[in-house]
Amino acid sequence: MIPQYLIDFDLQDLPVVETDVIVVGSGIAGLYTAIEGSTDRKVLLITKKTLLESNTRYAQGGIAAVTAEDDSPAYHRQDTLLAGAGLCSSTAVDVLVNEGPAGVQELIRLGTMFDVEDGVLALTKEGAHSHRRILHANGDATGYEIVRALSKQVEHLPNVTVWDDHFVIDLVTRENECLGALVQMPDGSRVFVRGQATVLCSGGAGQLYRYTTNPEVATADGVAMAYRAGAEIRDMEFIQFHPTALSYPGAPRFLISEAVRGEGAYLRNIKGERFMDRYHELLELAPRDIVARAIVSEMEETGSTFVYLDITHESPEMVKHRFPTIYETCMRYGLDLTTDWIPVSPAAHYMMGGVKTGLHGESSISRLFACGEVSSTGVHGANRLASNSLSEALVYGRRIVDQIRQLPETPAEPVPLSFSWQRKEAPSQAIVERRLKLQKVMVRYAGLRRSKDTLLRAIDDLNRQLPLFQSELTKREEYEFANMLTSSLLVIQSALRREESRGAHYREDFPQRDNEGWRKHIVHVWDQGMTEEFSDDV
């Protein structure tokens, strides 16, 4: 049993910090929401490391929005729905494609320097997009440029207070209303932060897997704390694996952007053969899940741990200009993108599911919102279309702030709330060992390809870790592991329930899509288990 809170507490014994809006996380969602909210509210932005450490920072490909004359929101909508494999919310997608271009203009106003060619915004094309609509910055450093620009803004806003190196342990709720959060300070002391609204912008779940393109901070904290708080959590079985992460001894699983294939790169197996024609008519530009599984099939067939990405047939000048970060990173390991085939393999990349929200980022708990990768707005369905995530964070961040402005104020009376669980001493086994074991279980049994047997094995293995919740947790890495364990079990339980293959979820024992039985979402609620709801995708 997973308890409602990770720690025992009595709010009357804790110091209280009051603010209008609590923003948890500092990626594009957190930074932009903080900027928007600060125009007429006091905002406290809490990040467990620093302002610059988030998944956004590592986003290479770019941001998808309609800016070209030959493109339209209708085309962008069609591409998004197609990639989402029947599980997108068509109304949520309409919001994204129609409001995304204004979000991009807002980023430019806030100081983001997108690449320009001949006086107009430079656009590229990525997998499953029908038009060139991906804006990028410094070639392949789009995420870093956006975070740079937004962080600079935040640092000069008098209404925004930033807490670096603080950990949000849990959300405090009463009668289905979020009152604020329990926060651990850098010195280990704890405080109750009380807010009129709380916005989760805490990012994704890549660290659930042994191989991931995500940074160390992506431990699914927001999903787990929202689940414990009683919020509806949706679509957790859909974890997107990026097909092409660098797979080289001594190198991190560095992301080799989709845009490299968008500019003409080939995939070759260990024998040097191009193989995507055996899997999809769009070849290297097929949807990510298809490309990732094709790579795994080729690796198994040839007994290799990687395939090659080959862009050596394009001009060296174009490659260096378009992909400077990727080029320099590969060179650091003795690999020249312009002359060498680059060894790649799939790695966990993006969580489509998360905290279920409405069209204004509102969760099922009053005054609790979610934005960015932690949310499940319905935009991504069963498989996110490349580069839609950054624009989603902008569009829904603005909508969340609009909604917060409509909220009535709550009185600042003391909250007589406490929680006690039968906790023992500190965890017996080292957290670093537990974490590695969990990551290996998830890769082996709940990764790109799943079956009833592997998923049951995964549940069995992870259930043995549940006594952790009886322990007294005091350190950041202990809270992170508790969140990873919680979120992993949600992923596995959903994957076991969905007896079909769709988008990023592939069951070897149910390899076909079943629209009649499974065009619906799986929703988890902490004290109610799993339910199903039909998709409104048209």
TrEMBL record:
One GO CC annotation: cytoplasm
- Which cellular compartments is it found in? Cytoplasm
KW Oxidoreductase (keyword) present: yes
GO biological process, any = 'de novo' NAD+ biosynthetic process from L-aspartate
Active site, renumbered: R288 (proton acceptor)
Q: In terms of domain of life, where is this protein from?
A: Bacteria
Cofactor(s) named in the record: FAD
Reaction(s) catalysed by this chain, per the record, are:
L-aspartate + O2 = iminosuccinate + H2O2
- What InterPro entries does its record include? FAD-dep_OxRdtase_2_FAD-bd, FAD/NAD-bd_sf, Fum_R/Succ_DH_flav-like_C_sf, Fum_Rdtase/Succ_DH_flav-like_C, NadB, Succ_DH/fumarate_Rdtase_cat_sf
Every copy of the FAD-dependent oxidoreductase 2 FAD-binding domain together lies at 20-390
Q: Does the keyword Cytoplasm apply?
A: no
Key words of the record: FAD, Flavoprotein, Oxidoreductase, Pyridine nucleotide biosynthesis
Q: Which Pfam families match?
A: FAD_binding_2, Succ_DH_flav_C
Report domain Fumarate reductase/succinate dehydrogenase flavoprotein-like C-terminal positions. Answer: 435-527
Q: What is its EC number?
A: 1.4.3.16
One MF term in GO for this entry? Answer: L-aspartate oxidase activity
Metabolic or biological pathway: Cofactor biosynthesis; NAD(+) biosynthesis; iminoaspartate from L-aspartate (oxidase route): step 1/1
Q: Which residues form a coiled coil?
A: none
| The family this protein is said to belong to | Belongs to the FAD-dependent oxidoreductase 2 family. NadB subfamily.
This molecule's function is given as: Catalyzes the oxidation of L-aspartate to iminoaspartate.
Task: Tell me the protein's name.
Answer: L-aspartate oxidase
Please give the organism: Paenibacillus uliginis N3/975
